[in-house]
Amino acid sequence: MLEVDGLVKAFGGFRAVDGCTLRVNKGEILGLIGPNGAGKTTLFNLIAGALQPSGGTIRFLGEDVTPLSTDALFHKGLVRTFQIPHEFHRLTALENLMMVPPGQPGENLFANWLAWGKVQRVEDEVRRKAEDTLAFLELSHVAHERAGNLSGGQKKLLELGRTMMTDAKLVLLDEPAAGVNRTLLRKLEEKILILNRERGYTFILIEHDMEMIEKLCHPVVCMAEGKVLIEGDFHTVRSDPRVLEAYLGETPAAIERNEFEHDPKVEELREQELHKEDL
């Protein structure tokens, strides 16, 4: 489903992603782990089209999508969530979901006057789908609550619901466990498994919660210093000495990288790249 070959992203002289290669097959939940500064989020930004690579290729469903924008990839079924949810906080949970499907005729001013019947039919269909999505996520009781008032865990569930409104084929989940209490985290895990096993969703999951990685993910990929260090099942990866060194060791290369990672010039280059993509 997804093929990443020799992907590189350089910020000045610093390579945040350095020759990364991986494969994601249809129906997998691939776990992406690694210490802070390993390049995981930069890799996500490259795959999702938020950043353009300095080298390498990305293929999705057999098509070279390396130069495509986030919006173009969204329409092809590749969708990402964020560690900090990006909800429309003044809209209700229901309205947040209803806004997601593209191409709704109600977005056209003239259609609201000249084809109001069609506009109403599509809006009713979208509303029903949004209500069904909230019911699946067990969020029906907050359907008419402003999204900004939801708890951290409810916002993460709502983010997952937004991917369901697109009928996504591949979902990139960026630290879904962050800021979520254990009860809602178990619910989130349950919903991800149902979407994967019963509805055919494929996931890539960045996460520091190893309990969640163990429950959900196969295979597991560990990154360090911008490269893929090892790929395998959870227990093989967890026990590999290179993984332990990447997480716990303070090798000269790791120290040098950590200094580079917090270099203001590197951060400025990274912000400039992201800003260009937003324009």
From TrEMBL:
Alphabetical list of Gene3D superfamilies matching this protein: P-loop containing nucleotide triphosphate hydrolases
Keywords recorded for this protein, A-Z: ATP-binding, Cell membrane, Membrane, Nucleotide-binding, Transport
Domain ABC transporter: 2-250
GO molecular function: ATP binding; ATP hydrolysis activity
Gene Ontology cellular-component terms listed: plasma membrane
InterPro entries associated with the record: AAA+_ATPase, ABC_AA/LPS_Transport, ABC_transporter-like_ATP-bd, ABC_transporter-like_CS, BCA_ABC_TP_C, P-loop_NTPase
Protein name, per record: ABC transporter ATP-binding protein
